Amino acid sequence: MEDLDYRVNVAVIGAGWAGMAAAVALAQKNTRVTVFEAARHLGGRARAVEIDGIELDNGQHILIGAYCETLRLMRAVGADPDKLLLRQPLAIEYPGKFSLRAPRLPARLHLGAALLTASGLSWSERMAAARFMTKMRDNGYRIAADLPVAELLAQHRQTGALARYLWEPMCVSALNTPPASASARIFLNVLRDGLDGARGSSDFLIPRADLGRLFPLPAAAYVSANGGSLLLGTPVRDLDKCADGFAINAGPQRYSHVVLAVGPHQADTLLDRFEQLATTRLKVAALEYQPIYTCYLQYPQQVSMPQPMTGFDGGCIQWIFDRGRLNGTAGLLAAVISARGAHQNSTQEELASAIHRELADFLPGLPAPVWSRVIAEKRATFSCRPNVVRPENRTAVDRLYLAGDYTASDYPATLESAVRSGVLAANLVLEKS
């Protein structure tokens, strides 16, 4: 380890993916960094939890090959993506209804082949999808004015099975916002870089390990090994600008820069301390939120799904992940429900029972689960609406920066957005050092 630059002493508030990305990026440049985290665990809204002695996640996440910064930082901190992630070419399966699989062909050819060979689509729907992608590509995936995804699809005749099994699930999965109220502009950015980028960009990367081991835990080890500090169970209640830097919780330590990397609804009380941040506070206050529900059901070990990830249609389940196929926890299934919906009106017991009934229809003879648990992240992401105004990383307070998946970006609230925001905030710190 090279000597640290003691002229710069950065406080990162929040140890989620954005905060840990900022801390790693700073540690890579031999910058002294202290991470404050109110909880006693790392990862924020994408973390490991323990249920009945089993390490699970507070939500079943899926990455894609276009997550370049996430994969780069994973490698930098010693988390090997090839071992920790199952790489699977783009494959969307609604058994008996729809199937799309991308062959291992060069970029763009793989997408064309996937659309033209998809089952469950009429020939006219396949050609309509090809025309839509060609039109978007010719326009540079830009539109003159933002509008809901549902309207964009209707304008380009992306209806029927094409919308129901391809574009709408892709919108909800990526933006965590229903197509009727989701930003078409941001959706097109996802299509551009994920579906129509390099061939591997559209690959699904499904975690084989819990989210903590993917990045937050090895990131913490990397920061510590490079002279940084992590203070878990240490909430930041007071943040003040002083002549010689920033003071946290009225302590004697001064920090030259601060990266505020907590969720937007958690940042309010700290932002309120600075009159210069009135505009930023208004942008944060205007954000709306969408939930993600994950229901884990532990069945006998012989229970399994036909593939690691299966789409469901017509009920409350959107996707089922077979954890036995992913990380060896035989019989454990994870049902994911993104965005708002009627499921929010059910109790956890009612929701778990409804999900079991849907699974029993799909897997005849399915026994009752040994146990089930619903994890509801009610503010999992901001609502990615058309023309949503997001705050910048740079604030009106000198040397105070924001980091998080909600900051200004071309992308929705994803792990990649959080990581990119953290790295950008770190780069702004280094520019001012």
Q: What features would you describe in this structure?
A:
The protein is α+β, with helices and mostly antiparallel strands and 433 residues long. The chain has three domains: 195 residues, 3-Layer(bba) Sandwich (FAD/NAD(P)-binding domain), CATH 3.50.50; 113 residues, no CATH class; 94 residues, Polyamine Oxidase, Chain A, domain 2 (Alpha-Beta Complex), CATH 3.90.660. Helix content is 35%, strand content 23%. The protein has 15 helices and 20 strands. The strands form six sheets. The chain has a five-stranded parallel β-sheet, with helices on one face. Strands 16-17-18-15-19 form a five-stranded antiparallel β-sheet. Helix 1 runs parallel beside helix 15. The longest helix is centred in the last third of the chain and has 17 residues. The radius of gyration is 22 Å and the shape is globular. The two termini are 20 Å apart. The mean pLDDT is 93.
Features:
single chain, 433 residues, alpha+beta, FAD/NAD(P)-binding domain, Polyamine Oxidase, Chain A, domain 2, five-stranded parallel sheet, five-stranded antiparallel sheet, 15 helices, 23% strand, globular
